[in-house]
Amino acid sequence: MSDLRTSPLHERHENLGASFTPFGPWTMPLKYGNELDEHRAVRSTAGLFDLSHMGEIRVTGPQAGEFLDHALISTLSSIPVGKAKYSMIVNEEGGILDDLISYRLADDEYLVVPNAGNTDVVWEAFQARAEGFDVELADESLDTALIAVQGPRAEQIIADLVAGEDETVVRGMKYYSAAPLNVAGFDVLLARTGYTGEDGYELYLPNAGAGELWDALLNAGAAYDLLPAGLAARDSLRLEAGMPLYGQELGTDITPVEAGMARAFAGKEADFVGRAALDGREPESAIVGLKGLGRRAAREGAEVFREDEKVGVVTSGQPSPVLGHPIALARLHPEFSEPGMSLEVDIRGKRHPVETVALPFYRRSDS
């Protein structure tokens, strides 16, 4: 791991007893104690995540919106200032290079957040696609820390760390919105987004203040039983929430059509890279939720069958800590994507029954 990048919070994680794992070009906390406890804390109270491995690319200039309309499959030029949009970037053949979130910070300014392992790919694609646009690009990934507070008590924890009328901003912020705010004495971009299926916030700031802000969030959260949480809990949480992970559900071998994102460019007026390959495309597969009817969990790579016909493969799977039964995401032939279909998965040479279900597997009570 010596050649891997470390987060500006790495020493904090070591002091908390974290175990680490490689993730893209980074080494990041896998867990601090028991990953099931961390998962359940996010579902019941709150969890604190270090996401500083994520990328941050700032896009500015008179044609910033038009450039992103060209570079991504969605229409970014029409989203209001202070709002965010989930989208994808594809190659000329329509294969997904990454899924990412873009925040509109001003009329001529956006912050685009790629996945950790794809930041360099997105950066190179942006540079190539910027030709002819009046736009400036800045890769701020290595200078920016990202901390997330996720869970039912996240709003109260952040509200405890802001002053005066800023509490109204925190409590009134809508999902997929963002605003500059001072939290615990640090100027951050506060976004009400996340990857857990719970309410929560993400805080972007320069590396220099990350340690002190982490400490402040950890201390404020102690009154609400907040736990620091690692990548293991983040993965099980996103799976319960039915959210795809690049490298498992998503990749260059699948297009947004198969990923259920055709709506992102339906009716889009602007041309974009990959459009010719996507317009009119019929899906060759679908990402489908599977509920295990036994106790064994299907893992990535397990084959899915309908009687003697192979109909797809599991991309992610494990026992659900909250639901009490195995769950999985799978790429299946589209005709097997409707909820309520009886299928089988091959787990170490033995077939186990599963049922297709609507996503997400888990939905929080107030959503």
Strand content: 25-35%
Oligomer: single chain
Tell me how many strands there are: 20
Structural class: alpha+beta
Number of helices: 9
Count of discrete domains: 3
Just name the CATH architecture of the largest domain.
2-Layer Sandwich
SSE run: EHEEHEEHEEEHEEHHEEEHEHHEEEEEE
Written overview of the protein:
This protein is an alpha+beta fold and 367 residues long. The protein has three domains: 5-54 and 143-240, Probable tRNA modification gtpase trme, domain 1 (Gyrase A, domain 2); 57-139, Alpha-Beta Plaits; 285-357, Elongation Factor Tu (Ef-tu), domain 3 (Beta Barrel), CATH 2.40.30.110. 20% of the residues lie in helices and 32% in strands. The protein has a six-stranded mixed sheet with strand order 11-12-13-10-4-14. A six-stranded antiparallel beta barrel has the order 15-18-17-16-19-20. It has a five-stranded antiparallel sheet with strand order 6-7-8-5-9, with helices on one face. α2 packs across α8. The radius of gyration is 21 Å and the shape is globular. The mean pLDDT is 97.
Brief descriptors of the model:
367 residues, alpha+beta, Gyrase A, domain 2, Alpha-Beta Plaits, Elongation Factor Tu (Ef-tu), domain 3, 3 domains, six-stranded mixed sheet, six-stranded antiparallel barrel, 9 helices, 20% helix, globular, aminotransferase, aminomethyltransferase activity, Aminomethyltransferase
Short description:
Residues 9-265 form the GCVT N-terminal domain. The protein has 367 residues and is an alpha+beta fold.
